[in-house]
């Protein structure tokens, strides 16, 4: 086809993109001028006018460094927020497009990973020990880069790779080729943490991206916002003779279950911000690809936000960063010596629907090759590190994740794959389906059920609550739960707390870190919250880090667990009632008895038998919980939260 031949072979075709979206029988061709902008809010999205057709308006490549907009740490490599304004849009039947794309892959030289296997094993061990083991978060994604080079035209190599990815990879959300010739050169604001703006020169130095992303990050269509957390990886080559047993073991594996649960919670935090009623959880499902099977959920909710604000509030997917997101960015910046460029960012297609409303379709930018004009090739891949990770397992995961793109570039031989029928037949086995669905049996129905605004009654209706956010946006989910009880909720970061005395309830919220480190500004701020509320005998609830700070103020010592409780659901005895709750913690308070005297009245404690580890505490006008009542892992979160909050008010206050 002349159009594709010209784009891949003409001397100067200008910026263009080729997209094959999930299930489509067409290859979309986008062409137009290229620009760079400083902020997501500056991405061009023209207003809809009478007579305008529905469709795409701008394709934005959002780099990882854009996290600076949220004040998060990152290695600043200067990669620009590049925007292709769609001046020309074509759809080519897929069969015609495949016939026109190059068939033969030009020669490519494999240069290996920038961090070898031994060094990456050591890096994994260090993060597990020094970060997850010290309460910095529940999971982190640390990448390394497979390098290669070619003397061929990057467009021809990318075109051949795209053809292989479309024909050889199943279950892909987007297959794409984006060609950006050198352009730009203006200065951009560099949004640094702490609000200190700098200036960096941002230009598109020329690059060609080709890949096959399995994962939708976020989409908006007619006000319906959706996200798609994916985690857990089963390599089909490991299915062996008894594929059914292998698949059942994979679905029952605690590490795989915990990984998906943690990213589900993390994306629910984002949905709590962008969706009016928070996100509804759909699934879990199996996502079948050619050589891999993943597990996934879908999240859905209604939004009235500008799609550029949706992009901003969801930077970036926890499957490529970690949890909680702000500290994950800080950890990544410490351990990754080079910038991520577009890896872990998004490829965002913004447009208008038939009624003129905004639309957004944004897959995660990973499983792709970034080809420079000089033939240098980078394929970035990261492993999700959780408390159950092993260094050897995470090394293998990076090889598997880079493998599909390296195969498309001719650097790997495609392993023999089970046919689509084989894996789908296994997936339909009643035992397999039951094992997958059993993951939901003890999850919170609040997040699994469809929710709509409805009148609320009860003792908390109209009460006000302030949640102090210590850099963990679980506070957004906590806010939704409290609002579902009829409360009027405000969330403030610990860096900007004010007016504590004007609220009926203050929640000392969750966050990463060591509760005994008084030099940590988050811990210090929560300490001031606790002191102010206890001194006035004003209602106070502590959650996770806030609970730990409250425990210290009440005289309880802290203990760092040998094995972190990160993303861990447990059945506990909570003041005489068995509860299923979700833990995200490394530290715990310890108490010698179930009741203790304090300067603020008698303290009642829920403790672990044998160790004295404190799950929860309560006293006159205050309570604290080590777990997260708002987590999807806490089975009866709204009921439990109702009991906790009503308990901190005096009978007169809740009458």
TrEMBL record:
Instruction: Give GO terms for biological process.
Output: L-tryptophan biosynthetic process
Q: Which GO terms describe its molecular function?
A: anthranilate synthase activity
Per UniProt, the keywords (alphabetical) are: Glutamine amidotransferase, Lyase
Signal sequence, start to end: none
Please give the CDD domains that the UniProt record associates with this protein. Answer: GATase1_Anthranilate_Synthase (cd01743)
Which reaction equations make up its catalytic activity? Answer: chorismate + L-glutamine = anthranilate + pyruvate + L-glutamate + H(+)
- Chorismate-utilising enzyme C-terminal domain residues are 131-401
Specify the Glutamine amidotransferase domain's residue ranges: 467-643
SUPFAM superfamilies linked to this entry: ADC synthase, Class I glutamine amidotransferase-like
Q: What is its EC number?
A: 4.1.3.27
- Name used for this protein in its record: anthranilate synthase
Query: From which source organism is this entry?
Result: Catellatospora methionotrophica
| Lineage, broadest ranks | Bacteria, Bacillati, Actinomycetota, Actinomycetes, Micromonosporales
- The gene that this protein is the product of is phzE1
